[in-house]
Amino acid sequence: MLRVAVPNKGSLSEAASAMLSEAGYRQRRDSRELVMVDPDNDIEFFFLRPRDIAVYVGRGTLDVGITGRDLLLDAEVEAEELLPLGFAASTFRFAGPVGDFTSAAELEGKRLATSYDGLLRNYLAERGINAKVVRLDGAVESSVRLGVADAIADVVETGNTLKAAGMEIFGDPILKSEAVLIRRTGNGGAANGTAKEIEVLIRRLQGVLVARQYVLMDYDIRKELVEKAASLTPGLESPTVSPLRDSDWVAVRSMVPKKETNRIMDELYDLGARAILVSSIHACRI
């Protein structure tokens, strides 16, 4: 039975469970459940703190898990990213008092407060910057005002919290993070489950990602305009073209990016396409 770690709370939790449900897996109904078995899919889910998931997977206790890329790198364990999942995006950046810093190079000899000390130490070491890292469990933006640090490194979303604390972002992003599927490195990808079961999980999650990003578009168009229409809706491989009763017309079906739906519909209509319909994709395999 494949053993999968899922975030039990925080910004990762709800989105991860929703994605697994869309992929056809049972998920818990009570947030107090710590373990849940899905016998139909021969899989067992363990609901854990997001920060601990990389540790369990890296030690081989669990086969795979969903956590943040930042948490994976910060854990410094033998685990690797298998698949980016497209949610819980965030950026890890430096911030300091307004006007004090403009680049990471200016942090030489300074004190840096962060909740991601492993990630930050590796970043500094790779760039030859010698700075003291002060680990805090939260509210790092207060550390400068309280005299604990000269600057901070933290996850930044809107930056409003930093502005309220009299600070500003500087330098290039340290890391762009999102939710990722991870597994242990160097063991063939599974501690208790099989590589095949992990491949099935990956395909299902990839199917959810595609279903969220694409829609099916159907339309009728005159035969002589098919090539021009296909350039607007190339699909993943090639559009499906079917004959109609009127031999001068054909029906076309293709997958198109969801965010470009209305633009493509307008361009098809201007080209001469009619009966343009759009349908959602609930599941797929690519």
UniProtKB/TrEMBL annotation:
SUPFAM superfamilies: GlnB-like (SSF54913), Periplasmic binding protein-like II (SSF53850). The keyword Coiled coil does not apply. Residues 211-282 form the Histidine biosynthesis HisG C-terminal domain. Its main location: cytoplasm. Pathway: Amino-acid biosynthesis; L-histidine biosynthesis; L-histidine from 5-phospho-alpha-D-ribose 1-diphosphate: step 1/9. It comes from the Bacteria. It catalyses: 1-(5-phospho-beta-D-ribosyl)-ATP + diphosphate = 5-phospho-alpha-D-ribose 1-diphosphate + ATP. It is found in: Cytoplasm. CDD domains: PBP2_HisGL1. GO terms for molecular function: glycosyltransferase activity. The keyword Ligase does not apply. Its cofactor is Mg(2+). Keywords: Amino-acid biosynthesis, ATP-binding, Cytoplasm, Glycosyltransferase, Histidine biosynthesis, Magnesium, Metal-binding, Nucleotide-binding, Transferase. Pfam families: HisG, HisG_C. Residues 49-207 form the ATP phosphoribosyltransferase catalytic domain. Catalyzes the condensation of ATP and 5-phosphoribose 1-diphosphate to form N'-(5'-phosphoribosyl)-ATP (PR-ATP). Has a crucial role in the pathway because the rate of histidine biosynthesis seems to be controlled primarily by regulation of HisG enzymatic activity. PANTHER family: ATP PHOSPHORIBOSYLTRANSFERASE, ATP PHOSPHORIBOSYLTRANSFERASE ATP-PRTASE. NCBIfam families: hisG (TIGR00070), HisG_C-term (TIGR03455). Belongs to the ATP phosphoribosyltransferase family. Long subfamily. This is ATP phosphoribosyltransferase. It comes from Arthrobacter liuii. The lineage of its organism: Bacteria, Bacillati, Actinomycetota, Actinomycetes, Micrococcales. The gene is hisG.
